[in-house]
Amino acid sequence: MVYFKSYGKYGYRQIVESNVNMAQLFASFINDNVVLLAPVHLNTVCFSLTNENLISDFVNKMNATGKVFVISTFYNRKKGRRAAFVNYRTTAADIDFAKTEMLQILTEL
């Protein structure tokens, strides 16, 4: 309960807004190799690769780096990946880092 009192309504509002902003920033990464599976309304981005045959290799290589982890999801019967932003300390620099790592893996596939 102390945790809730320490931030207050205004603090929680800032945390939620920041996570939504980070999700929208991440979603702006969508390019020729990546497709958005659903609109981004809150803090979660569901995406896939345009070439679905590369998804398993992409996930394995990405998670093997130990730097950025992606998890599986299904949306409208499509296999994809989900990025959920829940840490209030996530910054635009973190998003840029994740995008750079993803692009590196995509060029290797």
Q: Concise description?
A:
With 109 residues, the chain is of the alpha+beta class. Helix content is 49%, strand content 19%.
Describe this structure in words.
- The protein has 109 residues and is an alpha+beta fold.
- Helix content is 49%, strand content 19%.
- The chain is built from three helices and four strands; from the N terminus they run H-E-E-H-E-E-H.
- A four-stranded antiparallel β-sheet has the order 1-2-4-3.
- Strand 3 and strand 4 form a beta hairpin.
- The longest helix is centred in the first third of the chain and has 26 residues.
- The model has no long low-confidence stretch (mean pLDDT 86).
How would you summarize the topology of this molecule?
Blueprint: H1 2-27, E1 34-36, E2 44-49, H2 55-64, E3 71-75, E4 78-84, H3 92-108
Antiparallel strand pairs: 1-2, 2-4, 3-4
